Amino acid sequence: MRAIIPAAGVGTRLRPHTYTLPKVLLNVAGKPVLGHILDGLIEYGIDELTVIIGYQGDKVSRYINERYDLPAKFVVQEERKGLGHAIGLGLEKSDDPALIILGDTIFDVDFNGFLQSSETTLGVTEVEDPRRFGVVEVQDGQVIRLLEKPDDPPSNLAVVGLYKIQNQARLKSAIEELIEKDITTKGEYQLTDALQLMIDQGEKIRISMVNGWYDCGKKETLLETNRYLLQAMDNHYQVDGSMIIPPVYIGENCDIKNSIIGPYTTIDNRAYVENSIVTNSIIGPGARLEGCNLENSLIGEEAHVVGLAQHLNVGDHSEVDFG
Questions:
Q1: What is the 3-state secondary structure (H, E, C) of 119-149?
Q2: Is CATH 3.60.21.10 correct for 2-221?
Q3: What is the pLDDT of residues 270-290, one digit of tens each?
Q4: CATH no. of 236-321
Q5: Rounded distance, CA 190 to CA 179, Å?
Q6: Range(s) for CATH 3.90.550.10 in the chain?
Q7: How far apart are CA 277 and CA 254, in angstroms?
């Protein structure tokens, strides 16, 4: 089956890190978000890939081509006109099914069961504030209405970015109809609107509850995803003169001296940490920390931080000195 992954977003909520790297390539628990997604899809038998790229798309295509032996097609979304528009670029005029999965979200889900459905199926979860999401209304097990970020939600079931489409051509036709008639919601061509058109035309759509859903679209959720992934790992590290409190991930060629690392901390390759305490944080490749007390922090590639701090969000090649 083909997987379609939209990965063209700019990632404004993750700046300054996304000034130099697309958000799907940000590191969590030792590998890029996209790497975790692809490893999971391959495990469950996905054998073709279409990736919608845009912002820094060359880095996305290079990462996939260099690390995965998987037939991959890259489609450029020249203008960001919404998720529906992006997906429409990747769909084929074929009766074959396809899996759509967002490139900045990691799922803990039984893909085998999800993909075996004989009908179009949407991954959903219950949320406290459904006004921030695409929302489904369900009757007798079938989706009867989808709304994008409604002011008055008909339910608390939010679409989480996981879609098994039974017939690509039908969805592609619905998206083309949106664009032809210029049907937009909040100024964009929405995937929820295209799916609603399919329902209006007789398509049966079901839901599948997703309990583990980890969005990597902003600092807080990226760190939450890092915690979740590290808990599932069985990594053990010993560093002379330092204390390592699992779960943590420490990359290759790191130099850690007289420090306390963890819990819930990722230290990327070539990082240097001395006289520091680092908890619940992600430290980028080649970063240098000296005399720091960091918690809930993102430190970019080759950044240099000296002195005490509590919560930092420092981009690539930055220098921060609290000494």
A1: CEEEEEEECCCHHHCEEEEEECCEEEEEEEC
A2: no
A3: 999 999 999 999 999 999 999
A4: 2.160.10.10
A5: 10
A6: 2-221
A7: 15
